[in-house]
């Protein structure tokens, strides 16, 4: 917020079109001649560019800001509408990503809100009732407030290869992913549910992999979406806790939500 305030001050300091301390007044006959030739604006008797109006505009522009606490404390001049518009545009790019995404991103899926991270270059929808939380290593993470263990998040990591095609087809990536799970000491079993490949709107190849993980911590349904672009590895990871015997029909709705969210992931 300190950075935003400083930037706003700078916008105010440099925005004034009539900031020159010297005012050049035309002779009175020139003022009347111009007033006769031009249409009347603003004051009703003078042209908006005549010396009288310019002087009035300068007085207004240099007047102390008595309408805002910031103006009272800093002694800055009042901000005109154009300056506020410019400052608002600049500050909009400094808005936290969550706020930016929710105010500008409209999902095509009912009940979902689009989250956009323009810096990392991806977008994903989330259920409108879900909360944004945090976890080490995750670029963003969303959780179901009714079931805190049901989450979906995105991680972004640098990588040397330029595209997913260089890494292998969906079967190759799935095998690497599941082998990584099997190598964990806590893993009991890993079972593939389904896998598929698709291309995002930008043409980036994305693999969607769903599997069930049985470990000493319990049984989970996991959905992963993988993509590579601009030498970045993007991984979407959705988690849903199941009963010890496995996911049942009662988990069907939650699984459907995770699938829907994962399918909206795209690299921009």
Task: List its salient traits.
disordered N terminus; seven-stranded antiparallel sheet; three-stranded antiparallel sheet; Protein Transport Mog1p, Chain A; 10 strands; 33% helix; 268 residues; alpha+beta; 2 domains
Number of helices in the DSSP assignment = 9
The total domain count is 2
Structural class by SSE content: alpha+beta
Q: What is the number of E strands?
A: 10
Q: Please state the CA-atom Rg, rounded to the nearest Å.
A: 29 Å
The percent range for strand residues is 25-35%
Shape: globular
H/E series, N to C? HHHHHHEEEEEHHEEEEHE
CATH superfamily placement of the largest domain? Mog1/PsbP, alpha/beta/alpha sandwich
CATH topology of the largest domain: Protein Transport Mog1p, Chain A
Helical coverage, percent range = 25-40%
- Describe the main β-sheet briefly: 7 strands, antiparallel
Arithmetic mean of pLDDT: 72
Distance between the termini: 28 Å
Oligomer: single chain
CATH class of the largest domain: Alpha Beta
Report strand order across the widest sheet. 3-4-5-9-8-7-6
CATH architecture assignment name of the largest domain: 3-Layer(aba) Sandwich
- Poorly predicted sequence stretches spanning 5 or more consecutive residues: 1-104
């Amino acid at each position: 917020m300190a950075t935003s305030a400083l930037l706003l001050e700078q916008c105010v300091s440099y925005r004034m079109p009539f900031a020159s301390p010297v005012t050049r007044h035309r002779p009175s006959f020139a003022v009347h001649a111009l007033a006769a030739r031009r249409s009347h604006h603003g004051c009703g008797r003078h042209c908006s560019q005549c010396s009288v109006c310019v002087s009035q505009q300068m007085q207004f522009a240099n007047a102390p800001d008595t309408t805002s606490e910031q103006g009272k404390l800093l002694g800055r001049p009042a901000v005109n509408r154009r300056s506020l518009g410019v400052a608002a545009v600049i500050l909009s790019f400094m808005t936290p990503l969550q706020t930016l995404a929710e105010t500008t991103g409209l999902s095509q899926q009912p009940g979902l809100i689009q989250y956009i991270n323009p810096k990392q270059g991806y977008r994903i929808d989330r259920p409108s009732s879900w909360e944004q939380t945090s976890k080490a290593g995750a670029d963003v993470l969303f959780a179901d407030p009714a079931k805190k263990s049901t989450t979906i998040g995105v991680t972004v990591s640098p990588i040397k290869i330029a595209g997913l095609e260089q890494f292998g087809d969906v079967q190759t990536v799935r095998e690497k992913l599941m082998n990584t799970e099997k190598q964990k000491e806590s893993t009991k079993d890993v079972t593939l549910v389904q896998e598929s490949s698709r291309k995002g709107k930008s043409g980036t190849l994305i693999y969607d992999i769903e599997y069930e993980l049985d470990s000493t911590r319990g049984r989970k349904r996991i959905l992963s979406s993988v993509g590579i672009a601009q030498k970045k590895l993007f991984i979407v990871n959705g988690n849903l806790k199941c009963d010890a015997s496995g996911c049942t029909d009662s988990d069907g709705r939650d699984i459907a939500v995770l699938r829907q969210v994962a399918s909206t992931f795209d690299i921009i």
